[in-house]
Design a protein that fits this description.
It contains 15 helices and 19 strands.
């Protein structure tokens, strides 16, 4: 792509769109919480906000560039590959601005509607090598908002493939970011990857490695056929566990639970040492922590908040937001946790809330009388990296409204 058709640093229109962004996404209650040591009291109700929450730099940049793109090309058709971020409110705003969302088709997006005169925005998650090549051939203007933390993982996976290592990626094989990351191995002939969702799936890989070396395993290992069936959607097209688990480099989707990513990396390395010895591990295994700093900071802030006495946690963010799901999982280990996509999920009049249940089944449910209406109540709140401040503030306001408490909004 020429410099005229590929844009990665915006259009220099940040000042022009700043007022619109502020009107759409800032929140007074959040400012108040910050100013008062992240705490608001009213009557018998206390709300504590985690000290790191909401929009991260990568998300702010992606949304900013999307708004700049609309300002730069008022007369052009603008398409977006998937969702800019995993937040329903932000994506709805872009639709209102006339941005057309392209749907996924197989392993990529359906670019059939796109013509050379159009503009395509790439989301913060990035797109696959195949998607990028398709856009290159179309010759349209491409505005790339891929997060820098994601690009760092891509570089790591690319190096693994260059050096003949299979990338073992802790992530969700269907997630846009993980699909884009996995595709980086295709820059080198014979590049391979396998995606594990959690430690349970990582253990299947470890058992296979140790069994192939003739070592005893804590669980019956999968046969080759069963292994290939299990990871059919989560491995490269020509992946062979008998060939491609000899040299492994660990990476991860940037928004996963950090402690689990680190644990998986350490466990896989230990399994290789048990199978073939420490020398083999040192030469055939690599691992790096590729969790982004914003994800880590938000998880650390939740751990700090949970050290205080709380009656419940509210986590605000899209139901398909991986980093929000990780926050909800952390909270759910210690206190009743309510993961809501948007403050509209809280019905003040009925004292009901629609939530995404914390756990492996990911179903949504409506809960009646979720807040006690009398007596002391301590509520913690946090939000995923794709949640704007105004939505956090609206959730706080609805908690106080259910309790019949009035918040003094004068700073």
């Amino acid at each position: 792509m020429s410099d005229m058709t590929y844009v990665r640093k915006g259009f220099g229109l940040k000042a022009e769109v700043q007022d619109t962004l502020a009107a759409d996404y800032t929140g007074q209650l959040v400012d108040m919480l910050r100013a008062q040591d992240y705490t608001l009291h009213a009557g018998q109700t206390t709300v504590r906000l985690a000290k790191e929450f909401g929009f991260c730099y990568g998300v702010e940049r992606a949304v900013d560039y999307a708004y700049q793109t609309r300002r730069k090309f008022p007369g052009k058709r603008i398409f977006l590959a998937g969702e800019i971020i995993h937040n329903p409110h932000v994506n709805a705003k872009l639709r209102e601005m006339g941005v057309v969302f392209l749907s996924a088709s197989g392993k990529g997006f359906d670019y059939a509607p796109v013509e050379p005169a159009d503009v395509v925005i790439l989301p913060a998650f990035g797109v696959t090598i195949q998607d990028f090549q398709t856009l290159r051939e179309l010759g349209c203007v491409v505005v790339d908002t891929t997060c820098g933390s994601v690009l760092n993982v891509w570089k790591r996976v690319e190096v693994y493939a260059r050096d003949g290592f299979t990338s073992l990626i802790h992530g969700k094989f269907y997630h846009e970011e993980t699909r884009a990351t996995a595709s980086q191995v295709e820059k080198y002939r014979g590049g391979q990857y396998i995606v594990v969702r959690d430690m349970v799936e990582a253990e299947l890989v470890m058992d296979y490695i140790e069994a192939k070396a003739g070592k005893p395993t804590p669980r019956p290992p999968l046969s080759r056929a069963d292994f290939l069936e299990k990871f059919a959607k989560a491995a490269s097209d020509h992946f062979d566990p008998d060939l491609h688990l000899d040299r492994i480099g660990v990476a991860n989707q940037t928004t996963m639970l950090a402690r689990e990513s680190l644990a998986i990396g350490a466990a896989v390395g230990d399994a290789m040492a048990r199978a073939y010895g420490d020398v083999h591990r040192s030469e055939h295994f690599r691992t790096f922590d590729t969790i982004c700093s914003a994800t880590q900071d938000r998880q650390d802030a939740v751990v700090e908040l949970l050290a205080e006495p709380l009656d419940l946690m509210v986590v605000v963010g899209g139901y398909n937001s991986s980093n929000t799901i990780s926050l909800a999982a952390l909270c759910g280990e210690q206190v009743p946790t309510y993961h809501i996509a948007d403050p509209d999920e809280i019905d003040v009049e009925a004292n009901a809330v629609r939530v995404r249940r914390v756990g492996p089944h990911h179903h949504e449910d409506e809960i009646a009388n979720w807040l006690p209406t009398s007596g002391p109540l301590r509520v913690g709140i946090t939000a995923g990296a794709s949640t704007p401040n105004n939505k956090i503030g609206q959730a706080v306001a609805r908690v106080f409204a259910i309790r019949g408490e009035r918040v003094d909004t004068s700073l």
